[in-house]
């Protein structure tokens, strides 16, 4: 029995020994992990402003302070300055403050008006071997290069230059078949009715300023009028918003907007009547032009657009959808010219009640509030987009013009001054807004593609046409903006057809587009400021004078 016990004990010990021999040795003790660390403070050129900085100089000092001393060897692999195109910008780095702070500076000057990002990754290490707890990204937008991009010239010469360069949009870029104005510089065969009206007025400026001859201008406008007469569809005398410049076919603006656009037609007629008054000679070409313009002008059935004798005009009519859009033309906006022309028609005139009840809503378009120290007689809060003060007033002279609702020079001046003051105050905090960089109106943008920018729809987008076309209302403020646009931003926004459509200095975006309805007001309103040419032509029309009197307007020229 004892022998058996000893044998069992032997086997048990053998098995225990074998198990111990085959088992893995215990792991060595884990060394303690170095603690992570974090950013303690940040300053760009000595100032803290979160992680986004504007108007940064071209060789900024960026000081990052951390909660521990840094490993100098980890700096080069963890800190990068990246340009907007993704290019890595060479930088110098140096440790300070017992190695807990790093000073970063570009090796060379960086570019103006450019977004850079300083990235600090979690590969940044402390001397103890710990890693940065969270990556850091700092946005740096550099300032405008304040040097002049073009030689200084007199203000008079600058205004002429802007008119001459912008005129090329309507002259050099006019449609080769119809002569009409393309909607924009990428529109191909699509021409615009209202923009063509602005273009006709611009051609008159071109003749008056000596950019082209009277004969050449006359021939181009004859081409346009003949095309409108012989090739284009009229809907109760009105034209569509868009037209194919080769065939004359209507190009739908939208599915149901494939017929008459009364407001666009009004802008066209405004220009045509100015041309009729300008070409007052006895040659057969000028007589023929006047007769053909009168045929188009007298053919517009303004009363039809009251939609069965309602006391308001309607914007659209479609041969397929009739009044489906059903949009009444009510003030205050850009369409005062529509009511003035409708009242001036010798063939289909509206009466004053349509103006009072429809356009003016029996006084409902009045405002009367004060914004930035300016009383605004009419319109929406803070005035709306500035084209309200431009499109109708390319021809209508606001000087001394009043009716039951407003003095129109007061209205437009207040509107422009409010727009200016809003941009100077810059409640949205957008980069670049200033007393020299202002103007909110409808234009292309990089946010929504196209928008009617205004103080109540501010996307950070400045449209040069807004300040330029306001020159008659805000001569000092507009001239300051014109100088800034040309001399300081000219390398970004001055091009083949004058100033491009818009820019955004917060997102660093510059349009490459030109639009007829933005280029035209620049030429025309500069000329009205300088000579009153288009105001004098339009208000010299006897039927316009009578129509405005019929609506209750008073002015020295009526």
TrEMBL record:
Gene3D superfamilies xref list = 1.50.10.140
Which PROSITE patterns does the record match to this protein?
PROKAR_LIPOPROTEIN
Q: Which UniProt keywords apply?
A: Signal
Which positions make up the signal peptide? 1-20
Domain Glycoamylase-like spans what residues?
327-542
One Pfam family in the UniProt entry = Glycoamylase
Which InterPro entries does this chain map to? Glycoamylase-like_cons_dom, SbsA_Ig
Q: Give the SbsA Ig-like domain ranges.
A: 55-141
Protein name, as recorded: Glycoamylase-like domain-containing protein
What is the phylogenetic placement of the source species in the record?
Bacteria, Pseudomonadati, Bacteroidota, Chitinophagia, Chitinophagales
């Amino acid at each position: 029995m004892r022998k058996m016990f000893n044998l069992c004990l032997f086997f048990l010990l053998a098995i225990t020994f074998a198990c111990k021999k085959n088992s893995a040795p215990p792991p060595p003790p884990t060394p303690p992990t170095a603690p992570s660390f974090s950013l303690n403070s940040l300053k760009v050129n000595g100032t803290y402003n979160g992680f986004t900085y504007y108007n940064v100089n071209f060789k900024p000092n960026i000081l990052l302070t951390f909660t521990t001393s840094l490993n100098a060897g980890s700096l080069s692999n963890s800190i990068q300055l990246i340009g907007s195109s993704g290019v890595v910008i060479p930088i110098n780095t140096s440790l300070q403050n017992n190695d807990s702070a790093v000073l970063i500076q570009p090796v060379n000057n960086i570019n103006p008006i450019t977004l850079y990002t300083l990235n600090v990754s979690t590969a940044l290490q402390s001397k103890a071997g710990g890693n940065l707890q969270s990556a850091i990204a700092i946005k740096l937008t550099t300032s405008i290069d304040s040097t002049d991009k073009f030689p200084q010239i007199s203000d008079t010469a600058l205004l002429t230059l802007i008119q001459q360069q912008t005129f090329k949009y309507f002259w050099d870029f006019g449609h080769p078949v119809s002569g009409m104005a393309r909607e924009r510089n990428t529109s191909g065969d699509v021409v615009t009715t209202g923009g063509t009206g602005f273009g006709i007025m611009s051609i008159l400026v071109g003749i008056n300023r000596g950019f082209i001859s009277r004969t050449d201008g006359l021939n181009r406008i004859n081409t346009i009028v003949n095309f409108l007469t012989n090739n284009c569809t009229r809907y109760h005398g009105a034209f569509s918003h868009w037209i194919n410049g080769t065939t004359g076919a209507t190009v739908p603006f939208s599915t149901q907007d494939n017929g008459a656009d009364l407001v666009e037609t009004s802008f066209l007629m405004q220009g045509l009547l100015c041309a009729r008054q300008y070409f007052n000679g006895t040659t057969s070409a000028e007589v023929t032009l006047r007769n053909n313009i009168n045929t188009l002008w007298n053919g517009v059935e303004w009363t039809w657009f009251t939609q069965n004798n309602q006391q308001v005009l309607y914007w659209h009519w479609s041969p397929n959808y009739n009044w489906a859009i059903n949009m009444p033309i009510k003030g205050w906006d850009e369409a005062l010219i529509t009511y003035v022309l409708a009242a001036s028609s010798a063939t289909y005139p509206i009466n004053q009640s349509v103006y009072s009840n429809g356009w003016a809503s029996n006084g409902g378009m009045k405002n009367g509030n004060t914004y930035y120290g300016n009383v605004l007689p009419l319109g929406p809060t803070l005035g709306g987009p500035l084209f309200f003060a431009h499109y109708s007033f390319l021809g209508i002279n606001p000087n001394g013009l009043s009716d039951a609702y407003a003095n129109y020079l007061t209205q437009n001046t207040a509107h422009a001054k409010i727009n200016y003051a809003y941009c100077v105050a810059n409640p949205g905090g957008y980069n670049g807004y200033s007393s020299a960089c202002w103007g909110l109106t409808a234009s292309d943008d990089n946010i929504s593609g196209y928008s009617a920018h205004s103080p109540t729809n501010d996307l950070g987008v400045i449209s040069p046409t807004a300040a330029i076309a306001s020159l008659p209302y805000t001569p000092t403020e507009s001239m300051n903006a014109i100088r800034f646009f040309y001399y300081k931003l000219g390398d970004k926004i001055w091009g083949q057809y004058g100033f491009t459509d818009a820019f955004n200095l917060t997102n660093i975006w510059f349009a490459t587009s030109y639009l007829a309805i933005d280029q035209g007001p620049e030429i025309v309103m500069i000329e009205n400021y300088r000579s009153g040419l288009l105001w004098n032509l339009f208000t010299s029309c006897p039927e316009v004078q009578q129509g405005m009197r019929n609506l209750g307007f008073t002015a020295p020229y009526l």
